[in-house]
Amino acid sequence: MTAYTATVTVRLKRGVLDPEAETTQQALERLGFELSDLRSADRFEVDLDAADAGEAADRADEMAERLLANPTIHDYDVAVAER
Amino acid sequence: MTAYTATVTVRLKRGVLDPEAETTQQALERLGFELSDLRSADRFEVDLDAADAGEAADRADEMAERLLANPTIHDYDVAVAER
């Protein structure tokens, strides 16, 4: 078993309204920053032990499917690195 | 001017309690997943135009300092990529 950290990034799908990101963008603009867009995402770093990187990615993927992401409104991606 | 996307990742500092991450970890364990730790972070993807990658990173850094992160409880890092 090897120790891995799986990073799951959960984003809203294109077209889903994101009022938090919109408010953040407006606040930055009010502070004088120029930006053309801002998107927000949640990032989960999961430490787990697995036989290999593929197994770690599969398990992180299942965590995203079952709990971390809502497939109706979210896309997600998984990246795995040895710890 | 070139179009860049600056990704700002904002994490709680070590030692700062993260009840959301703890609850998420417990929920995953209740679903039968084995994991040794889970940390959550916020990720902001900022689209901006800048003369070069260094300027884009500097501006994203200032956005983090002034609004996106709270230096008392957060660490952050900035990564810049051409769009």
Provide structural commentary.
Chains A, B: Belongs to the PurS family. Chains A, B: It catalyses: N(2)-formyl-N(1)-(5-phospho-beta-D-ribosyl)glycinamide + L-glutamine + ATP + H2O = 2-formamido-N(1)-(5-O-phospho-beta-D-ribosyl)acetamidine + L-glutamate + ADP + phosphate + H(+). Chains A, B: InterPro entries: PurS (IPR003850), PurS-like_sf (IPR036604). Chains A, B: One of its GO terms (biological process) is 'de novo' IMP biosynthetic process. With 83 residues, the first copy, chain A, is of the alpha+beta class. Chain A has a single domain, classed as Mth169, Chain: A (2-Layer Sandwich). The first copy, chain A, is built from two helices and three strands; from the N terminus they run βαβαβ. The first copy, chain A, has a three-stranded antiparallel β-sheet. The first copy, chain A, is elongated and about 50 Å long. The N and C termini of chain A lie close together (12 Å). Chains A and B meet through helix 1, strand 2 and helix 2 of A and helix 1, strand 2 and helix 2 of B.
